[in-house]
Write a structure and sequence with these properties.
Largest sheet: 8 strands, mixed
Number of domains: 1
CATH class: Alpha Beta
Number of helices: 4
Radius of gyration: 17 Å
Strand order of the largest sheet: 6-7-8-5-11-14-13-12
Order of helices and strands: EHEEEEHEEEEEHEHEEEEEE
Distance between the termini: 15 Å
Amino acid sequence: MDYPLLIDRVVLVVHDLARTRAFYEDALGLDLLAADGESAILGAGSAPLVELRRDPGARRASPRDAGLYHTAFLLPSRAALGAWLRHAVARGIPLQGAADHGVSEALYLADPEGNGIEIYADRPESAWVRDGDRVAMATDPLDAEALMALPGDWRGAPADTVIGHLHLATGDMDAAAALFTGWGMVETMRARGGVWFGAGGYHHQLAANIWNSRGAGQRRFPVTGLAEYHLSVAPGHLPAPGLLHDADGTPVRVRERITP
């Protein structure tokens, strides 16, 4: 992905580090890049994508809390998504949903501690339907049989797997919108209690909804689930590098991307 704002890493607080780490390795095929008794960093190739931090004393997050809705892992091709789906079926990995969003095809599940996950593949940008900054995104039935019929075997997450977007549960959708547009993003869609934001023409790098978390208020730490997330930005792009907080109080670490 070559957009001015990208999701670098998601940091999650968990109670059971060993079980959650095994899930990201076995179910998602991420590589273990570093680990000790209190944390683990997993990624694709050499790029870290998920950091797990053990805190058995952290309050267990409520479904009504603000925080993470899902982390969306973008696979490099439709064939890779089909290979992962065959892997999930063969391994008995429970799915929570599937959808054809027009711009992408997506599968949904959760890790052992309830953190939402999306596995998806984009359609070519030439197939996206746009109206100015708006991008048409649907929730239509997924043709799982066609995906599973594509050739290729699952041998773990391809090296060019990235976090394509991060979807947040927020207590105040308008406050989230004001913040993210202030960070140089544009609102690409708003519907059904959710709002989606993109930078550089992407359908969305960030989204926020109030489906379960309306009026949740500022987050109280320590708590399981989303601890922080990291963004990388092109030189001169907002937000400026440093430590920020989103509208619900989650820390956001921003670094400037080094370009050749």
